[in-house]
Amino acid sequence: MNLKVRVNIFMFCMLALQGIPILITGYLVINSIVYDLNEKLLLRELDALTKHLQDSQQILVEAGVAGLDSYIQLAQQEVLRNLQTQADDKTSHALIFSKQGAVLHSTDALTQDASLDKMFQQILKQKQGKVQFLHHSHTHFGVYTYFEPWEWVVLIEIKEEDIFASRASYVNFVLLIGAVVLLSTLLISNIFIRGVTERIQITLNALKQIEHGNLSVRLAIHNLDEIGIIQQGINAMVEKNTELYRTLEDKVALRTAELAKANNEITLLNRQLKIENVRMGAELDITRQLQQMVLPKKIELQQFKEFEIAGFMRPADEVGGDYYDVLQHDEHIVIGIGDVTGHGLESGVVMLMVQTLVRGLLLSGEHSLEKIMQTVNQTVYANVNRIGSDKSLTLALLDYHQGKLTITGQHEQVLVVRKDGSSEWVDTFELGYMLGIDEDIQDLIASTEIQLERGDGIILYTDGITEAHDAANKQAFYGEARLSSLIAHHWHRPVREISNIVVNDVLQYAGEKNIFDDITLLILRRL
After folding, report:
1. Which of these, 200, 213, 338, 480, is most buried using a 10 Å CB contact count?
2. Strand ranges (DSSP E) for 332-446?
3. Which has more pLDDT, 8 or 181?
């Protein structure tokens, strides 16, 4: 279907959408006007008839016989005879009922039947008004009133077909005028649209030729209206495309050379990246091995006679940022645990730095945990600034001697488990500060002491355990409560078994593939 036909259909539909509501509205308005006019005419006739009845009644009153049935009947008969003789060719008709519903007079030859009885019962309830009723397949419209002195219901009615006798010719006339207007509008719009659609068709034909590669097409512009502006734009586009086409081969050749050069550079970069990845993999592997090498070995932990010790560390990447160590220093046992922010090569280097510093300071004869903590902080602070890193760490150092355990530095809470399985938490938040952030934290370092009896122990860990996410509910943490409950339940077992139980429970809780932080666990129980 071409544009011209679619526009004509559109115009016809718009005219129909506008004309149909107008015709319906006119039809309804005419109906209302006809009803109102006929109602007023009928009311005038009803008033005249009612006035005639009142005059007859007044004559009886003035004669003093208004209460005598015989005189009343004579007056009524006289009225009915007059009504009968006055019947002419009028379309309206008078109808009089007695109070019992009997038809006393009808100029329309209405016969008594059930429809009249039903209508009478309806109008008798209101005494005055208008009514519509169906009688012998004809709909009647009328107005009525109740003449109380004689107990008559007086009705003036007319058939609806008489009311609307001329409506059909009016509707036909309106439809004829509407059809003439519609056809005239369509003819005029068709003449106007033909010129527009022909110009559009010419433009479409030109676009099709351009689409098939004919760049010699030019549109003749006769009128600079909207279509003329479009045609002007098409001509400009063809001119520009022609110019671009002339230089396209040179640009393609230049671009091909540039792409070839870029491809060679990418190939070289890929080779260099491959070599760099191999080198970095080797470095990470060496760093991971160094990290594992400096952790206390199982045989070392077994040499501490006063304690049963189990340690575990699993990095999230090839290189982790967690640190723990257990060192014999004179008659003291020094325990360290820390967590460098993040994980990877930088975190692993900081971890090795901390392990070396703590061991070196102890071997140099330094006994004060506060001084060791301050020295480690200053060294880490200087080194991370030198290498341009933002790494920092939490670090707690614990010194055990003859049943007394001294805790220094800020890290996770320390879980103290008594021989009977009961437990308590020691908060380290107020015992220090993050290392590597400020150069001097001397005033922030503090210590606390707890007593360990035989069978008592401590649990040290990093947040990779307590903050492991539930595999089913990513918002739920493993938490301290689950950790302390699990350890208390198995405290009677060897610490190596307890360590395995806790680690397996964390891995099962989070899922093997959902471990995103280093996991470190250190359990010590006094023998």
Report:
1. 338
2. 332-340, 393-401, 404-408, 414-417, 423-426
3. 181
